[in-house]
Amino acid sequence: MAKVLLTAHCLDQLLEKNYSVITTVRNEEKAQKIRDAYKSLGDRLKVVIVPDLAKEDAFDDVVAQNPDIDSVLHTATDPIKELVDPAVKGTTGILRAVNRWAPNVRRVVITSSFASILDEAHLHDPDTTFTEASWNPDTIRDVGRSPATAYRVSKTLAERSAWDFVSASRGAPSGAEGGSGPASFDLVTICPPLVLGPVVDHLVSLESVNTSNERVVDLLRGRWRHSIPSQGPVSLWVDVRDVARAHVRALEIPEAGGKRLFTTARYFSNSEIAAIVRNGFPEYADKVPGPEVQGGERPEPHNTFAFDVSFTDRLLGIRWIDLETSVKDLVKTFKAHGL
Question: For residue 32, how many C-alpha atoms fall within 13 Å in the half-sphere facing its CB?
Fold first, then answer.
């Protein structure tokens, strides 16, 4: 899943910047893997098990036991089943716990998705421009349309629930300890499209590779040899390291508070990915499609939406990693894992 990959990079970048971090995982196996990877850090990293993110008050214990935390990143993995309800509960659960037990928290950064920005009815409309202010209009009534729609609705409702929580809490009366009075924190949401890029070797295995990177696994295993698949109606992408960097900067930049950020490195196509691997890694020549193989091209400008991320670019000041660098770095990590 994309969030596993992203969480690993966020953890890496926070620790590299000398933050003290409390991270949550779902089981002891994952917890021990993180402890082993960062054992030299001592008490600067604490790993806590939260087995069910959708459980009522799932985060209360970990937050109540660490009331001095001052910032929160929420990048929880999307559940496989019952997408909508757990996505919303996981998001509101962490916000409620922070509001009850962590009065020093001044900012919460939540990973959302371009899925909460797009409008399926206008993905092929060149007169539609998506920005940080755009919202997916689909609701719970639309989840039966397709699995993709159900996923997009889950992301939209989860993000809306976060903004609604903060907005509602602003008008709430002060509560007693453990209550749910006015929130002391502001909120930032990060909305990336498709996420590509290398795994963190010591934290992520090939078995847990995210859905976005699976396309490169398929390419390297010869599944595109005779036909390059379409990347679908959304041809935007971003490198996972830049998404992690956006989360860290969103914690640090005062002006980010109360903002939605739309992080993208612009357009890509599956045919471009195939060409990068073909030209950069001759050892895969018998697996990747030749230049004559068709498919996977970018949609024509008259058949796709436009976008404007000038606000996010200006605020974060990130020089986005280019597609060639991202794909090459990803392939190198796959090679290191024996692919």
Answer: 3
Average of per-residue pLDDT values in the chain = 90
- Domain count of the fold of the chain: 1
Report if residue 227 sits inside a domain.
no
The 10s digit of each residue's pLDDT in 107-161 is: 999 999 999 999 999 999 999 999 999 999 999 899 899 999 998 998 999 999 9
Does the global pTM surpass 0.90? yes
* 299 falls within a domain: no
Specify the 3-state DSSP secondary structure of 24. Answer: strand
Q: Report the phi/psi class of residue 222: left, alpha or beta, with left for phi > 0 and alpha for psi in -120 to 50.
A: left
**234 closest CA partner among 152, 317, 314, 153:** 152
Least Cα distance to 147 among 121, 171, 115 occurs for 115
- CA–CA separation, 71 vs 261, rounded Å? 18
Residue 254 belongs to a domain: yes
Task: Assign residue 114 the CATH number of its domain.
Answer: 3.40.50.720
Write out the residue range of the structural domain in which residue 309 sits.
2-201+236-267+305-320
Query: Residue 172 CB: number of other CB atoms within 10 A?
Result: 13
Give the position of tokens 């909508």.
Answer: 84
For residue 131, count CB atoms less than 10 angstroms from its CB and return exposed for 0-12, middle for 13-18, buried for 19 or more: middle
Q: Residue 23 in contact with residue 37, Cβ under 8 Å?
A: no
Instruction: Say what the alpha-carbon torsion angle 334, 239, 116, 296 is, to the nearest 10 degrees.
Output: -70
The count of C-alpha atoms lying within 13 angstroms of the C-alpha of 212, restricted to the half-sphere facing its C-beta, is: 25
| Nearest Cα to Cα of residue 71 among 186, 189, 190 | 186
CA 247 to chain centre: 9
Query: What is the spatial distance between Cα 147 and Cα 143, in angstroms, rounded to a whole number?
Result: 7
Q: Tens of pLDDT along 167-225?
A: 987 755 444 334 456 788 999 999 999 999 998 876 666 666 667 889 999 999 999 99
Whether residue 142 lies inside any domain: the answer is yes
**Tokens matching residue 52:** 């069910």
